[in-house]
Amino acid sequence: MDDFHYIPINFIKLVKGDSPQTIDIMDSIHQNIGLILSTSPGEYRFNRGFGCNIWERDFLNMKSKNMMSAEMEKEIMIAVKEFEKRLEDIKVKVNISEPEKKEEGINRKRKEIHITVEGILKLNKQNFKHQDLIYFSPLSKN
Questions:
Q1: Strand partners, 112
Q2: Is the alpha carbon torsion for 62, 97, 55, 135 positive or negative?
Q3: CB 82 within 8 A of CB 110
Q4: Per-domain residue ranges for the chain?
Q5: What is the pTM of this model?
Q6: In sequence order, what are the residues at sequence separation of 6 or more whose Cβ sits closer than 8 angstroms to the Cβ of residue 9?
Q7: Of 63, 76, 120, 136, which one is least surrounded by beta carbons within 10 A?
Q8: Which helix (H) or strand (E) holds 20?
Q9: What is the pLDDT along the chain (142 residues), one digit of tens a residue?
Q10: Range list of H helices, 5-126
Q11: Spatial CA neighbour of 129 closest among 138, 120, 137
């Protein structure tokens, strides 16, 4: 099976002549989906389309969590299908919660975006599941 490179590549070791760290296909897909989710389109100068449009919703004041979840699921599905070609039968689930946490005497409330991406590896038909947690809209009140 092919080896994939761990991101970020340690260029200091590479310059010293060491081989780059390798990972298996499952870890490579996890890394790639994490990168897709954390990148806004336009950020990556070598492919301006790379990334996920979920970041456009960061400070939107949507009244319905269900509507926001559905829109984010759609955006994530589009991005994963476009930029992670090693998966098929992809399913995306987004759950949004807004827990209030007290930090330094201040009540802080922000959206927790729980993301699950599931699919099947095209290579060997193995099940794949990626879970991530992203925070949106840091609000605070006394």
A1: 97, 135
A2: positive
A3: no
A4: 4-141
A5: 0.84
A6: 20, 21
A7: 63
A8: none
A9: 568 888 888 888 888 888 888 899 999 999 999 999 999 999 989 999 999 988 877 666 666 788 889 999 999 999 999 999 999 999 999 999 888 777 777 777 778 899 999 999 999 999 999 999 998 766 443 3
A10: 11-15, 25-38, 65-83
A11: 120
